[in-house]
Every structure is written in structure tokens, then in C-alpha cells.
Amino acid sequence: MAAGMEKRVTFKGIWLPLLLVAPQVVVTAVFFFYPAGQAIWQSLFIPDPFGLSSRFVGLGNFEFLLSNSYYRASFVTTAIFSILVTVVSMGVALWLAVLADRLIKGSGTYRTLLIWPYAVAPAVAGVLWMFMFNTRIGVVTWYLGKLGYDWNHVLNGTEAMGLVVVASAWGRISYNFLFFLAGLQAIPRSVIEAAAIDGAHFWTRFRTIVWPLLSPTTFFLLVVNIVYAFFETFGVIHTITAGGPQQSTTILVYKVYADGFVGQDLGSSAAQSVILLAVVSVLTVIQFRYIERRVHY
Amino acid sequence: MKYLSVSAMAIAATLSLAAPVAAQTEIQWWHAFTGRLGELLDAQVAAFNASQSDYVVVASHKGNYSEALNAGIAAFRAGEQPHILQVFEVGTATMMAASGAIKPVYEVMEEAGLPFDPKAFIESVTGYYTTPDGQMLSFPYNASTPVMYVNRDLLEGAGIDPDTDLSTWEAVGPVVDQLHAAGASCPFTTAWQSWVHLESFSAYHDLPFATRANGFEGFDTELVFNGPTQARHIAMLGQWAEDGKFIYAGRRNESGANFRAGECAIFTESSAGYAGVKAEADFAWDIRPLPYWEDVEGAPLNTIIGGASLWVMAGHDPEEYQGVAQFLNFLSSPEIQAEWHQNTGYLPVTPAAAELTAEQGFYEANPGTEIAGIQMSGKTPTENSKGLRLGSFDQIRTIIDEELEAVWAGDKDAQDALDSAVARGNELLRRFEAANR
Amino acid sequence: MSGMVERRGAAYWLTHVGLILGVAFVFFPIWLAFVASTVTQAEIVRPPMPLLPGRHLVENYREALVAGVNVPVARMMFNSMVMALGIALGKIAISLLSAFAIVYFRFPGRKVFFWLIFLTLMLPVEVRIVPTFEVIAGFGMLNSYSGLILPLIASATATFLFRQFFMTVPDELAEAARVDGAGPMRFFRDILVPMSRTNMAALFVILFIYGWNQYLWPLLITTDPRMNTIVMGIKQMFPSGDDLANWPVIMATSILAMLPPVAVVIFMQNLFIRGLVDSEK
Q: Lower CB count within 10 Å: N or C terminus of chain B?
């Protein structure tokens, strides 16, 4: 790939290129760098909700957050949530991709069907799953009740976490499936056939040949899914549990919103944004180190 | 009376359709009412708009009380605030501390030449919203107080006399047990759990909810609602929840739907639940005073008001404030107040409206509707029962809700939950103090 | 692994069963939502609701589109369409231009621009919501399409992608254009852009879905229900007190919210998959 190398042939001129990058630069400066800088600046203040005054507190907001057991719990919640979403959605997707890969004909149809959740917004996925498990009228809740199990994710933290994990993982299956399928289809058939002729069973072949060859894809998906679980699942949480019960599904990005826009504690929210910024940067550096490129819109 | 108002509405509706659109000053009012209350509010607005042609009030529903308050705050930060914002009582401290964002109601009325006479209002209602020298900061639009609704049919069905004494918690307990034993699916439920069973509970039993006269005297107040009486009460409810005697449906008034559908027997809720119950319940029901613990000295005192008031936001033109003043004047007229009180169960804010209602024979025809008023003003309030003025209180209520839910789910015992709520709430009070010093 | 299965036999059928189970898991929530959008409120409110579609499809969808709960769903879909198209087309347009400039010109500050752009890859909008909100409010762009669109095209990931692609374009083409006396913009318009068509199309699908499915940002900056987008508007159709939710209309809205992205993905499937998989490698 020619990444990183310079073009030999270029056009002359200075004003034209400056004009061409201007839209990008202006939009990025005004709507990206300026707010990012503001977030860092604001984290040092406690403003009043109406924006009429603010009090400089230095690192006071950070001290408050890091000593707050609910904020620390939010880290743990986010970690558990991300890992569960990643494992569930990647596991199911891998299983489906392996199956689809075994077919000569028909994998295209399955692919078309399995692609749907990609187009469903996490917030809509949240509504769909919440509808099925609604404590008063949910179909699944009702049948569980018939089996003797009283489902109530409004009061039960474990059930709430389970529901948001499944709703988030559901939405992600397509994405992972497509990558796994592409990765599997890229493995040369000759290698597999040779192993089969030698008498290796499916699981042996999978373990010794397929899995190692799939590992770049797997690792890439691991990081991408974790970042997805960190941020894009806001819609799922907001529609199903609003971070409850008792903040057991309050992931970090949800807390930034809840404390800032609902609780009107903008100092705390800004400080949380800064911490989140640091966490994301670390994750992105890891990704670039090991995978080359990240596309995050 | 109702016949008159229906035809008045019809005339108003026709007039407003025919009214010219041009050159009317628009007054934006953001509120939190849906359902029956929303309809009644819209009718009031239509009546005002039809009664004059200089101003038109545009009422917008912005979500529940918390959402409406946050929408108002966000709009202020963006310079797009409405003229009037309905803010629930627990947002009072936040609004009062924002002196640059609000325009006190007494100022608005004075500048328009329509000054409010503090004596024309009921003190226990307006006291919540006035300055120490009695100047009204916000207009008490809908003030309610917690009462108890009883489904008489369900009680009878369980073999209990529907008129049985339910005036004390000591008396309610056995009735709930009986209902449960008879197989009732929802013997007891409540709305607004923090407001009814901690805030009003403390006031009713002359116990402090927070220091510094529940926050009236300063920002350096601290929460103290984790006392033994409150803990005992919450522990009882927690035990009921575990036994299936108390069915918890949500933090706000979600359980109203359950009661109105005839599922629940005993329901503690705002007096303003009256509007919905009257419209939808197809069973025999009545209203009782909120129960108290007989063995607590000083009980029953008075409960505190809930509901909301109308705050006028700063940053608009004098011409528009004229319109606001006229609208507030309209709302406080005895006829409008009496009609509102009778239809909704909210307390009348002027003695004139209360007298008008009594004159019309409303209390006789609808027994139980006078209970809210009596409960509020029957005794002289102490500093524990004038109300609450705590910053960030919406968030503190959320904390209390979370801790109570832990008790209902059996995860925590009552004392631990209350202690935790006090500790977490105090953190927020200190941050509020820091931001507003 | 491909085709390593006998045409008949247990393994073949098990494979299909497994895939069908997968499809069922994927479709069950969607199916249920669709059924709910075709029955009446009364049938839903007394569980269990039917599992086969009812006969009220037309009236429920009409009610949703024309009246909605707080705002007509047709209006919300329009807002979503404007936002999604604005983001997709806007982002493609400005990044094509900047990538072209960065790759094919030498101008002062070029390196700086490149690294600045690189930095923006790292931070999604969720990390800067409060100050971005204030910036938008300061410009008076709350409840506006530009407020919905601009912050979401601020990160320069598409620029980065096009830059990578342009780097693979043979130098001979640019050389030939120069020799012919064609100006840079001619080269851009007549050669580079047509060559980028596949990338642009794939990116369009991804960005359209990204824009359509935005939730947090529209939630924050729209306070007027008439500016709701369909994805964030669904939550607001739920009542905030003790009223009952209008389930058939809400579920109809959910189905409507899914349809445009699903249509885009399915009709441009091959392009989209290639773009997705290739661009991530």
C-alpha cells in the first residue's frame, strides 16, 4: 500500500489547495477542536445550570469523580458490558459465519437476511427488545411468567444488564458476521482440503488452521466491538433502562449524559468527558499500533 | 356550572378559530401535563386566548416535570427560553438561585399594573414560593398534597368493610394483610414514593427532612431523613414489597394506571390524581386522609405541597411581560381557580376560589375532595412542615428513588438505604452550595 | 472451509438448521414489532399479544404517518432523510476535496493539516457533547438541520479514506493530465472522481446509515418535537407519566425507522460489503 509515501507528481499552486481544504478545516476546527478544548477547560469549573456563573475548582471535579463509588462502579459496569456484548455478538457471528461458509449455494441468501440488524439503530433495537420484555405487556415476559419465572428488569439489575447486552449484541451480529465470512472465505481451500485428506475432523481443522488464520480479523473485530459497546450503545441503554436499576446499567457515556443534561452538573459531566477522552485515546492507540487503520465516523 | 363552562369552551373554540392571526404577541408556556390534566390546561389557555385579542398563549408539553425543567434550562443557555415555565416544587431552590434567569412574579405583576395582594392567597400554599418578606417569586399553579384513594369494591370483595378505619398506619397494616390473604393481586401501591413516604411523611410527623429548617434558611443544609421513624416506615413497606402486599410500579405516578384499571385496593397519591380517577375508574372509590403513625408524638401535623408553580423567565420584552401578567391574573381569578380545583383535585390557591367552590355545593356533592385542603391547612406548620428548599433536589429524589428501589427489591435494608441516600444526597447539596455561593 | 460439506447428509441439514436458527433470532424482534404494528392497542395491552399479523396495518401506519403521538411520523422521517443525506453527501464532498488537496499539492501547513485530521479519528461526538451543544446553541442552530448535520461531519475519517485511495492511483494519470495542459480541477473532475465512484458509493451507504441512526446528538439539540428525527423521536412517543403507550403506532414507527437503512443496505449490498470490509483492512 502506498500509505505514507509521497506522490511523485503534484500540481502547482497554493491558493487552490487551501481553498479545497478550507471547508474541512473550518468544520473540524469549529465543531471538533474547539469543543474538545472547551471540554477540557470546563472540567476545571463547577458552573451553575443556567450558565450564569461558574466557580473554578481546578482538579476538584476529578477528585469528586474518582472518590465517588458510583463513578468507579460505572467503569466496572462499562467493562463488563463491553466484554459481554463483544463476546456474545462475536461468538454468535462466528458460529453463523462458519455455517454459512460451509455452503456452496445459499450463503448469499442467508447473508442478505442476516444483514438486517446492521441497519437497525441501537435505539430502535432497544425499543424492540424492551417491547418483548416489557414487564406489563411483553410477550416473552408473559411466557416466562407461565413457566414460573417473574421477569422484572425494572427492579432486577442482572436482568437489566442481560437485556441491554442482548439488545446491543443483536444489533452487532451482522457487522461481525460479514467480516468473519469474508475472513473465512479468504482462507485458501487447498490448505483445508489437504488437512481433510489427512483425516483431520472439522474441529481439528478449525482449531489448527482456521482460527489462527482468522486471528487478524478477530483481533480487529475485538477492538471495534469494544469501542462500539462504549459509545454507540447509548441508544440501547437510554430506551430500555435509563441506566437503572440503581445505576447498574449506567455505562460511562450514559453517565456523561445523565449527569450533564439531566442532573445539570456540567462540571462533573465535563470532567467525565475528559476521562473518557483519555480512555478512548488509549484504545485508539492500541488499535493503530496493532491493526493499521481505524474508521470511526 | 359545568354546563356553563362547556358552552364557554365551545364559544371560545369557535372564536379562536375565527380570530385574526395577525399582530398578536405570542407567549410561550412550557409545561408537563398530559392526559386529562393536559386537556384541562389546554381549555384554560383557549379560554384566555378567546377572552382578549392582544396576546396568544402557546402551551407546549415538554415531557415530565424533570424533562420540562431541563428543557427550560437548556433553552435558557441557548437564549431560546419560553416566557413561562412550569417547574415542580422540588426545582424551586434551583430556580430561586438563578436570579439572572428568572423574573420574579411580583415584579412582573407590579410592572404591569396588576399587583398581587399576598393576602388574597392561601399562605400554606404560597409560602413555598415566596421570599422571607412574602413577595411571590413564582405563581402556584397546581398545588397538591398526598392523600389516599381506596377501591371500595376490592375491599368488599375481600370481606372488609369499605368504611373501615384507615386513618393510621397501624390500622392500614391489618387491612393490607387481609387483602393479601384474600388473594388480592395488588393490596397497596403508591405514586411519587419519595414525596409521599419520606418528604411528606417527615413533615406530617413533625420530623426534619433536612437541617436549617429544611433548607429555607441557607444553602449549608444537610439531609437528616434517615431517622428511626422514617426507617421503620420504609422497613414496613419493604416487608410488604417482599410479601407481595405492596406492588411497586414506578417512581412517579405509573401506578395510577394500575389503580384506575381497578387492580389495586389502596393507593397513596397526589390529590391531583382525582382528575384521572374520576374520569376513568369504573368502580366505587373514595378519598381518605393520608395515614400517620399514631405512636409518634406531634403527628399528624400537615403534609407539604407538591405539584408545580409557574416561573417567568428573564430576557423577554416588556410588551410580552404585560401579556404574561394578564395571563397570570386570568389564572388567579376565582372562577378559573374554582373550576380548576374542582376538575383536577389541585388545591385552590385563593380563599375566594375555595369559598366559591363551597358555595357551589361542590364539597357536599363530592365527599372527600375537601380532605386535601384540610390536611394542608388544618394545623399551624412548624419549621419541619413548611416545605423543602433544597438545591439539586430532582437529582436527590432520583437518589432516594434508587435507594428505595433497592429496598423493594430486597437488596438493602431500610436503614442502610436511607443512610446511603443521605450521604449521596449531601454530596450533591455541597456541590450546589459551591456553584451558588 | 468453503463447500466442504457433502450435498446431503446430516451435516448439510444441521448447517441449514443452524443458520435458520440464527435468522430466526435475528428476525424475531423485528417480526414481533411488525405484528404489533398491525393489531390494535387492546390486543397488545392484554398479553399475550398475537404472533401473527392482524388486519390493522393500513390504519396504524396511516395514524403514525399523519398524526404520530406528538408529531407526525412522516415529518420525522423527512427530518431523518435530510440529516442522513446531509451527513453522507456533505462528508463525502468536503473530504473528496481535502483529500485531493492533501495528496496532489504541496502547500504550507500540509503536514499539520494531515495530522490534525488524523487526530479527529479518535473522538466520537459522545465525548464532546456538552461543549458542542453550547457551540451549536451559540450559533442559534438548535432545532435546525445544520445543527444536526455539521458536528457529525466534523471528524475527518472520510478524508483519511480517500487519501489512502488516492495514494494508490497511478502517478501516470496525473502526469498525463499535466502534460495535456489540464488544470488540477479538470483532473479531479474527469479522472479522479469517476475512479472513486465505488469508494464513494460504499461510503455513502455507511455514512447514510450512520447519519440515519444517530441518537444522542439529535436528542440533545432538538427541543421542538417538529424537528425530531425518527430514531430519537420514538423514545419521546412514550408517555412520561401514567398514560398508556400507544403501542401499535410506536411499533409502526419503529418499523418505518428501519426501512430506509435496510433498503439502502440490501439494494447496495455488494458495494456496501466490499466497501466495509475493504476499507477496514
A: C
Position A36 in a domain: no
Query: Do residue A33 and residue C116 have CB atoms under 8 angstroms apart?
Result: yes
Closest in C47, C94, C164 to A23, CB measured:
C94
Q: What is the pTM of this model?
A: 0.83
How many helices (H) and strands (E) chain C has is answered by 16, 0
DSSP A104-153: SSSHHHHHHHHTHHHHS-HHHHHHHHHHHT-TTT-HHHHHHHHTT----T
The CA distance from B62 to B28, in Å, is 12
Cβ atoms of residues B102 and B314 within 8 Å: yes
Whether A224 is covered by a domain: the verdict is: yes
Per-window interface: C 109-138 vs A, CB < 8 A: 110, 113, 116-117, 120-124, 126-132, 134-135
Q: Which three cell numbers stand for residue C229?
A: 428525527
For A15, the grid coordinates are 491558493
Instruction: Give residue B86's region: left, alpha or beta (phi > 0; psi -120 to 50).
Output: beta
**CATH class of the domain at C65-280:** mainly alpha
SS3 A270: helix
Q: How far apart are CA B174 and CA C27, in angstroms?
A: 50
List the CATH code of the domain at B2-144+306-360. Answer: 3.40.190.10
Domain ranges of chain B: 2-144+306-360, 146-303+382-436
Q: What cell was used for B150?
A: 381506596
Backbone angles phi, psi at B144, to 5 degrees: -135, 175
Amino acid letter, residue A279: V
All chains having 3 or more CB pairs closer than 8 angstroms to chain A: B, C
Q: Spell out the per-residue pLDDT of chain A, length 297, in tens.
A: 334 456 667 777 788 888 888 888 888 889 888 888 888 888 898 888 887 788 888 898 999 899 988 899 999 999 999 999 999 999 999 999 988 888 877 778 888 888 888 889 999 999 999 999 988 788 999 899 889 888 888 888 899 999 999 999 999 998 899 889 888 888 888 888 888 888 878 788 888 888 888 888 888 888 888 888 988 899 999 999 988 788 889 999 999 998 888 888 888 888 998 998 888 888 777 776 765 544 333
Whole-complex ipTM: 0.86
Q: What single string gives the DSSP state of each residue in B252-319?
A: SSTHHHHHHTT--SEEEEEGGGHHHHHHH--S-EEEEPPPB-TTSTT-S--PPPEEEEEEEESS--HH
Cβ(B372)–Cβ(B412) under 8 Å? no
Reply yes or no: is the peptide bond before residue B351 cis, omega within 30 of 0. Answer: no
Q: Which cell numbers hold the place of A264?
A: 445539570
Domains in chain A, number: 1
Considering the domain boundaries, does residue A113 fall inside one?
yes
What cell was used for B304? Answer: 407539604
Q: What are the pLDDT digits (tens) for B176-194?
A: 999 999 998 899 999 999 9
How far is residue B430's CA from residue A267's CA, in Å, rounded to a whole number?
Answer: 14
Containing structural domain, residue A251: 68-264
Tell me the three cell numbers of residue A269: 459531566
- C-alpha triplet A208, A213, A218: angle, nearest 5°: 110
Residues of B in contact with A48 (CB under 8 A): 97-98, 435-436
- CA A118/CA C273 separation, integer angstroms: 11
Subunits adjacent to chain B (3 or more Cβ pairs under 8 Å): A, C
Q: Decide if C254 and A31 are in contact by the 8 Å CB cutoff.
A: no
Residues of A in contact with B100 (CB under 8 A): 50, 52
User: What's the order of all strands across the beta sheet hosting B146-151?
Assistant: B188-190, B266-270, B146-151, B285-288
CB atoms B100 and A52 under 8 Å: yes
- Domain B146-303+382-436 class in CATH: alpha beta
The answer to whether residue B368 scores a pLDDT higher than 50 is yes
